[in-house]
Amino acid sequence: MPGQRLPAERKLAEALQINRSTVVHALEELMSLGWIERRQGSGTHVAQGQWGNRQPAIYQWRTLFSSPLLKEDPYITQLKNQNDAKNGLDLYTGDLSSDLIPDFEFPAMTWDKIMHEEKQLTPTGYKPLKKLIFQHFFQDIPQKGQDILITAGSTQGIFWLIQVLLKPGDTIATEDPSFLFSLPLFAARGIHLKGIKQDQAGIDCQALEELIQKKKIKLLYLNPNYQNPTGKTMSLKRRKEIIRVCQKHHLPIIEDDVFSELGFGQSLPSLKSLAPDQVIYLGSLSKIFSSSIKVGWLVAPNPLIKSLVSAKKITENETDLLPQLLATAALSQQTYKKQQQQLAKKLQDRSQAFAQTLQAFKEDWQFSPIDGGLYYWLTWRQKKLTRNDWQVFLQEGLFIAPSFLFSNDTSSMRINYTPVDKKKRMIFSQKLASITEKLKNGR
Questions:
Q1: What is the Cα–Cα distance from 217 to 26, expressed in whole angstroms?
Q2: Residue 33's domain is classified under what CATH number?
Q3: How many domains does the chain fold into?
Q4: What is the pTM of this model?
């Protein structure tokens, strides 16, 4: 507090287990910024003056935030600037099309009711919601030794795992291409990402083992169902092979399964169900509710959940109660499963119609059928494209996600097909035909 005396330099160094010269430098900097006063014979005191006069030591932050690692990709900046155009078609979005979002009914709730429900809010989340998540999504996983942490979407779950399990300089392995490469939070933390090539069945297990042996990999991040950005689904055989490799090398797996409710048919066993103690599971309802209501969860062994809760407490970053109440109301409805199945059928119909539209472009664009999720992955069959070639998409008002956002590849693109209804299919076809012609002719 103002006027309070600080310990002597030697005692501070011992208490903090740092070199005394470091303490001296820190105190000199604090004095220059007006935070402390040092007087011969009376020691070091916190300054008595107005706190508003203190200078914040923000020059390091300015350097960090001006780093090119944290800057938005110029293509995305251009896309956002043009996305308001009336004649544009936004297939870049990572959200389910608004006309497909189920119309859940939410009960009227008084403030007294909300305050009453707040009593069931624990450090790991709202108790009734946790119970429903286990009932709906984890019937094939023994709950003993496992716990759920409710998060504000799966990306927050990734963020907390980075905070607790990794330190600057550590390395995560993931699919190539992968959604992770588009997130700036890894660069901000100094975490390295290594991509592993994948085929239609999933990542190459031999390449995974070679990477583990060459690099000190701390985590393996996988998106096995309807992968973002390629839309691929990992085969059951490959899932088992990957688990064997990771168990051999004691490598934890993060399974990001946010699209699990968007499958067209019977889903394959999750990695979590195949190896409960090896896998950290991320789930979400945000894809069904839209991104405006962020509700996700992280399922992991109890000791890890406790560490994550401690990290959240330190930063006072709690998950809001209201989205959890909405998620609980939706999952509690008897019609939830029926609505989820109806959504899956609508997605399948729209996917099939979109794939039929793509048939007209198969000589120039390669693509594969999908089993669920939001995305198609198209690869240019002609000469390799450059970053500059993708400007034609912006000029035509067809907004997609080029592959260079997710990998070093520059000849593929991710398309969210869910907004493409009958009317928009015609618009999409016209725009893609014009773009394809320009790319073939080098214009």
A1: 35
A2: 1.10.10.10
A3: 3
A4: 0.80
